[in-house]
Amino acid sequence: MAEVELEAKGRKRKAFCFGLYAFSFFTFILFIIFAENNIIPMSELIKKQLTDAKALMDKAIEHCDNELSKIRAGKASPSMLDGVMVDYYGSPTPLNQVGSVNTPDAKTIVIQPWEKSLLGAIEKAIMEANLGVNPQNDGVIIRINVPPLTEERRRDLVKKSKSEAENGKIAIRNIRKDINDKIRKLKTEGVSEDEMKTGEADVQKLVDNYIVKVDQLTEAKEKDIMTV
């Protein structure tokens, strides 16, 4: 009986030692893989900062796209009036919230106010927006005839597009700075130096990708402007 118990204990001991050896070996292999591929496990805190960075950069791209859409390319578009704010009973209100904006053809924009009394306020708002167009108020609707762009005007608009694109890139780089500052502050919460460096490298990858997106938006806008 004693011999059987000793044999059983021996088997358990061997099994335990084998399990410990296998775990150590597996851990060692993972270490080698990480070292060879320069892979550093990422802190959840850093992952959150990367998620925040992506969300902020998405908003920067959206803003840049909106600003570029306001630059007219010779064709009538409701987006040309997106920045127009109308005095609606003392409150500055976006034009598209006080009336419908339509383009019956490529050279005409028609604004139909929800309230006829707003015709004057809408006309004034369009004039003050300095869009280079002359609204025509016939007492029922406001019509805007979009004049064709001269070559010189097209080139000026391309310059304006480049300026908006640069603003977008600056916004993205500012996000990088803010996120990297936050990553550095995670040191006080136990995040290692290697993890912080990996996080900063991933932030730079995001920046590079979003800068490319800005360039793509700008290229498309410039092509639109220069197409006669």
Write the topology of this structure:
Elements lengths: L1 H35 L7 H26 L15 E4 L2 E4 L4 E7 L2 E6 L5 H10 L6 E3 L4 E4 L5 H35 L7 H34 L2
Antiparallel strand pairs: 1-2, 3-4, 4-6, 5-6
Helix pairs in contact: 2-4, 2-5, 4-5
Polypeptide structure, described:
The chain has 228 residues and is an alpha+beta fold. It is 61% helix and 12% strand. The radius of gyration is 31 Å and the shape is elongated. It starts with a helix and ends with a helix. The model has no long low-confidence stretch (mean pLDDT 84).
Structural class: alpha+beta
How many helices? Answer: 5
Q: Tell me the number of structural domains.
A: 3
- CATH hierarchy class name of the largest domain: Mainly Alpha
Q: What sort of overall outline do the alpha carbons produce when their principal axes are compared?
A: elongated
Mean pLDDT value: 84
The Rg value, from CA coordinates, equals 31 Å
CATH architecture of the largest domain: Orthogonal Bundle
Percent of residues in helices comes to 55-70%
Count every beta strand, where a strand is a DSSP E run of 2 or more residues. 6
Low-confidence stretches: none
CATH homology group of the largest domain: Ribosome-recycling factor
- Strands ordered across the widest β-sheet: 3-4-6-5
How far is it from the N-terminal to the C-terminal residue, by CA?
100 Å
Query: What is the CATH T-level topology of the largest domain?
Result: Topoisomerase I, Chain A, domain 4
Order of helices and strands: HHEEEEHEEHH
Instruction: Give a short account of the largest sheet.
Output: 4 strands, antiparallel
Proportion of beta-strand residues? 5-15%
